[in-house]
Amino acid sequence: MKRIAISLLCFIVCALSVSAQHKFDPEKFRAELHRYIVAEAQLTPAEEKKFFPLYDEMRDKQRALHKKTRAIRKQNPTSESACRSAIVQRDNLEVQMREIERTYHQKFFKVLPATKVYQILVAEEKFQKRTFKRLKNK
Fold this sequence. Notes:
Elements: H1 2-21, H2 26-41, H3 45-74, H4 80-111, H5 114-136
Helix pairs in contact: 2-5, 3-4
């Protein structure tokens, strides 16, 4: 009985240490994304200073909408009207997300040439694909 309890305790400790190693660190993710964008779009330090405050502001606003979208996805509506309401809410959030992007793209054009903004958008997409692929392989 003692051996079973000790084995179980060791298993729990190992499982907790493994899960702690794979916790998502948003600041680390943001820093990696920034470095990747700087390298891929070849941003100068002056461009970085102008661009990243706007970029981070946009992402923060989008993150708030993602939270709302996740909350709606977790719902389990059963009636026709509740399902319709959930769909309309999700659609509205997606439109708001695109409006935020459009607004901030216009702001980006004020601090960077369009070629750099385009390179940033491509770099961001590459980074996300690479990150998801890396997480999938773990």
